[in-house]
Structure formats: C-alpha cells, structure tokens
Specification:
Radius of gyration: 18 Å
Order of helices and strands: EEEEHEHEHEEEHHHHHEHEH
Helix content: 25-40%
Distance between the termini: 20 Å
Largest sheet: 9 strands, mixed
Strand order of the largest sheet: 1-2-3-5-4-6-7-10-11
Structural class: alpha/beta
Number of helices: 10
Strand content: 15-25%
Amino acid sequence: MKESTPQTQEQYVDVAPGVRLWTERRGAPDAPALLLIMGAQASGLGWPDPLVEALAAHHQVIRYDHRDTGRSTSTFDERPYPVTDLAQDAISVLDGLGIERAHLVGMSLGGMLTQLVLADHPERVLSATLIGTCALSTTPYRAADGTETPVPELPGISPQILDLWSRPVEDKGLEAELDRRAEHWQALNGTELPFDADYFRALERRIINHTGTHVASTAHARADDANMLRTEELATTQIPTLIISATAEPVFPPPHPQHLAQVIAGARLTEIPGMGHALPPEVLGPLTEAILSNSLTRKGIR
C-alpha cells in the first residue's frame, strides 16, 4: 500500500486467484463511497483528476484499473474471462476495501458493468450514473409518437470509429502510439466541442507511465460478452439511476440514453450539451454537477 497524501491512498485488491487490481481512494475515508468504473481497455486514470477531486469533496472516490489495464494483472491470454467477470470485479473491489455500499458511475463498457451490478447486486448500490452506454435490455425503444424501435435497429457506432477499431494495433513506438490514441480521442470527442490534442496526449502519456508500457491491450474486445442481458431486473430496480445524455455521442448516440431511461425503473435523464464519448475539460463541471445531483440524494453507507 502506498499513501501519497493523507486523503489519497493506493492499494492492490485480490479479486480472483492470481488477479490483483490497482485501486486508488481519494477523499475522506468516512464519506459515502463512490466507485468510478471505466470503459473497455481503459485505466482508472481515464477518469480525469479534476473530476475525481471535485467528487472527492463529497465522497470517498475510488477508481481502479480493470484486469489487463494499467497496473492490474494481465491474464487474458493465459486465462480468458467473460465480460461479466469484470462486473464481479467491481464487487470484489468494494469487498477488498471494506465498503458495504457505494454510488456507482460507469462510462461506456463501465456503464454496462454498472447495470450488471445494479441488477445482480442491488444491495451493494446506493445510486447509479450511466454515461455513454447502451441498455442491457431487450425492451424496444418507444418514441414520443408511440412508435417502437427494436433494440437491434437503434443507431449504431459512427463509421469513423468503426474504421479506427477495425485497424490492427501495431507497436510502432511510443510517439506513434500517442498519435494513434489522440486520433481515437478526436473521433470519440464528437464534433460539437473543440478538440485539444495536447490535453489527450498528456492524459495518455500519464496512463502509459502508470501502466509501464505503451503497448495497448485488446483483451476486453476479445472477452465473451454472453449472458449480459438484464431486462427484467432493470425494469424493477429500486436504485436511483441517472442517465447522462451526451448530444455529440458517437458510440451510443441518441436515442440510446432515452432508451436507457425507459427500461430502467425510475431512471431520470440529464443532458450535457456538446459532450461526446470523451471527458475533455469542458464537460467536467456539468458532469460533476450531474453525478452529485444523483449521489447526494441518498445518505451513503460505508
């Protein structure tokens, strides 16, 4: 365990035989816990420090590296695991840190993992906030005029991002990898906010230094995504859930947020204008306000 300041603590948590996850806690240890769950292939450092610090004024904020990311154990090539194991890892992180219940905030794949925890372990969840994700439900989307759209017919990922994802990831050195990641972030950022390549290069350089390698993992893209639907459980949950609607979202564009709000019982929707599938400085203030509007409605239990 390493302490950088009295309010920030790093710790490794064993979540399965031979699997250890890096975690970081920031904020008062007696404050209600808030667990940040990042997307596929993303280190916990993908949650920007200013967002974490703002949330830590009210919560004990936890971010962590998934398996095969950051400083956590990489095991997929020797022992493949399904995506659902990543959701169980979130529970194991809470167990390892001695936390009974937490507010959950999930982005992209992290939003799907949050839904799995919400459905399978509601007793561990105080509230849930979902960002840039899709519903783990087969219930069709119903438009304002009453027309229904089956889930497979909802808008898909933008062609530009699909093209980027289809390219093989080759090791051409650190600077070339930073260029590749910056190009990826530019596509994810959307077209409504300016893109600051230097900001995202600095973010990725920090993640690479944290990880110890610039070679990107593809483990989560190869993991089995079966058994993830939770239609009935989401339709009956009692957990306060907030859906972030990002107007420039290129991965799960509208009406995916509206669909989420329909299929999760009691969910409410809030819009962040200009936001895409990234976390540039311009969205951090509105995003912090939105998360706190959900998490501060219930007293946390440590």
